[in-house]
Each structure stands twice: as C-alpha cells, then as structure tokens.
Amino acid sequence: MCARTTTSSWMKQLTNASRQGRHGRVLHLFFAHLRRGDRGLVDLHPAAVPTALRACARLGNASSGRLIHALVITRFPFLAADAVAATALLDMYAKCGLVASAQRVFDEMPRKDDLVAWNALVACYARHALPDRALALAIKMRGQCLRPDLMTWNAVISGFALAGDDQMAGELVGAMEEDGFQPDVVTWTSLVSGSVLNFQYARARVLFRRMVTAGNPVLPCSATIVSILPAFANVADVKRGKEVHTYAVVTGVEQELTVGSALLDMYTKSGFLLEARRLFDRMAERSTVTWNSMIFGLANSGHCQEAIGLFNRMLCDGARPDHLTFTAVLTACSYAGMVELGKSLYRDMQEEHGIEPRLEHCACMVHLLGRAGWLAEAYDFIKAMPLEPDCFVWGALLGACRSHGDIKLAELAASHLLTVEPANAASCLLLSDSLAGAGRQDDVTKMKRLAKRRRMKKLDGCSWLSEST
C-alpha cells in the first residue's frame, strides 16, 4: 500500500474520532502516525495538525499542544503560514489558559485579515478575565478593515458579564444592536451566566424572563438552562425552577447530562429530595457531579444511610469518586454517627483512590470524631494533619467541645480560631456558651468584652457554627 493511501485512511480515522468527541483517540492516532513517519512510511495530511490541536484544546492538554507546535516549526514549516493551522494553535493556547502564548502566535501570523483568528484572541482575553483587552482588540479590528461580527460582540459581552460589570455588558449589547446585530441565545446566556457566577440571582432571573418575553424572544438552549438553574436553588424560587424543568422536558434537553445534573443540583439544594431522586433514577447517564449532588443532598437532609448506600452503588457502577464525593459521604457518616466507617472511608480515599486529604475532609473527620464524643482523638487528628488547620477544622472541634462540656479543650480550640480568624466573633460566642454552661459567668463577661473591644463580627458562611447541633 502506498504512503498516500495509508495517509488518506489514517486521516479518515482521525476525522471520525474528532467528530465523535474522542479527543484522546485523536492524539493517539496523530502521534502514532508521526512515529511511523519517522521510518519514512507515511506523509502528513495538512488538515491533521489543526484536528490534533483542536483535540488538545478540548482536553486542555497544553503539553501535547506545545509538542505539536514544535513539530510544525521543525518538521512542517509550510504549516506555519497556514491560517487554519495558526488559528487552531492560537485557540489551543487560549483554551489551555496560556494567554501570552496565544498572543505570540497571533503576532507571528503573516496575515492579519483572518476574522476567525481575531475572534479567537478576543475570546481568549474575555475568557481569562481580561475584558478590557478583549474590547481594545475588537476596536483595533476596525483599524485592520475588519468588521466585528456577532461572535466578536458575544465574546466581549461575555467577558464583562463574567467580570460582574453589568453596566458595561449592557452598554455593549446596545452598541451591538446599533452595529446591526441582534442579541442571540449566546448573548443572553452570557449575561445570565455572568449574573449567576457573581451571585446576582435576582438579576439573572430578570434577564432570563426578558430573554423569553422580549419583543424578539429568544428560545433558551441547554447551556442557558444550566446557567440559570442555580438562581432557583432555594425553596422560595424552586417553583420557577420547575417551570424551567418543564421547558427542558418539552424541548427534549432534560436527558442531556449537563442539564440533568443542573436540575438535580437545584432540587437537592432546595431540599426537594423526592423530585431529585426521581430525576436521578431515570437519568440515562450519570457523571461524578451527578452522584455527588445526590449524595450531598441526602446527607444534608438527614438521609445518611441512604447517602452511604448510594455511595456504595456509585462504586459498584464503576463511577470514579473525587474529593467532593468523599466530603459528601464523610458528612453522611458524621451525621449518622458511623465513626468506624468514616475512618475506613478516609483511609480508602487515600490508599485505594489516590485522593490526598483536603481541609474539608479533615474538618469532616474532626466533626465525625467530635460529634461522637471522641474529643481527644479529634484533637490528636488535628495535630497529625499534613495541612495547617483552618477555621472549619478548629470550629468543628470547638463546637464538639461545647456539646460535650470540655471547657479546657474548648479554650484551646477557641485560641486557635482567634489566631486564624481574629475578626470573627464566632469563636467567642461558642466559647461563651461553653463557659456559661459550666457556670463561669466572669469568664463569659470577659469574652464578651474581648469581642466588643476587637469589634468582631459574625462572618457569613461558617457552617461549623451549627456543626454540633
């Protein structure tokens, strides 16, 4: 078989793997082909390099992308001037977070009239929290006799929306309309997503309503649904979330993994466990994120045995647990008082699954031991930690000491908490409760004076304040 026929057959395999989303397979085929080429058996198809670079971009595989870049320079210099290959290279660096490398590729392109390349760099800056540079580049395009298109406008708008600059994002939408482009589903999804990521849930809901009820209504896509659902993840707003769920069912996107996972997360966080479990059970495909959401939801709602059972089912189904999975199942063990199982899972996490303990795992273990009254072992665990204990670790111990009346250890935990978070009044409040329970009113007064003197505040987000309840 001649080299040309071999190359044609190989390129067909490469293209098919790319279309099927098998990006790891694309890179395997690409580099295997080059190794055969080292022995003079095959030639390289010009479309192979862009295809391989797109696979690197999808996988975030910068090391392989750099290797391909080196191969272009040393072995296939004719591709250096190819606009398609250069744009694929720029896009690979951009999606791998290597902004400077993407800019360098752009600067070295022999021609500056490729709108696709400009858009790739604009999107790079927008994606990596540099919206001002994205906007400056879009303006510079006009100096090159290139008119920004809808993709350019959407990229810049997305950059400011993600940065939380709602005013600028809105002004750019107006400028886009003046330039002859109407907001499409990508525009609206960027605005909604930016609001949600910046915790502006009310604004996100308003934008979503405007999207579907404006003079020129735009139908949401699956990405829009995934973006908006976190804005409904509480009991007060879950009714609207159910309406979005209905839309997902009607349009047939409910079965998409990302949509199903987002719906499940909304239901579990708002405490609608029955709806969440029904959705979970009929999902055709589940990711680690899906399993984690369901296990967390069950554990946080007090269904600890069910959460642990679901974790075991996850392992039997061959799903791969991650660090969040173990945080969820350790939480379940803690609330269920299953100390030995929790200790066993903590070991398995490291020995069988190769997951190094994080601070959240350590806080779960301290809470597990402390809640069961094993205060000395909990303190020994903290002293043996490979990580520096944070407020959640010491807070878990302090909460347990309050529950079990260990004043001496409570004072020790509180002193560490004051060192870690000197402005947080929680440690003083918890210690005051413990001292009051022991009848030490003079010490309670001293703690209150200390909190007042330091102008302490009760900080939000400290879940360990109620750990012992």
UniProtKB/TrEMBL annotation:
Gene3D superfamilies: Tetratricopeptide repeat domain. Keywords: Repeat, Transit peptide. It comes from the Eukaryota. PROSITE patterns: PPR. PPR repeats lie at residues 82-112, 114-148, 149-183, 287-321, 322-357. One of its GO terms (molecular function) is RNA binding. GO terms for biological process: RNA modification. InterPro entries: E_motif, PPR_At4g14850-like_plant, PPR_rpt, TPR-like_helical_dom_sf. NCBIfam families: PPR (TIGR00756). This is Pentacotripeptide-repeat region of PRORP domain-containing protein. It comes from Sorghum bicolor.
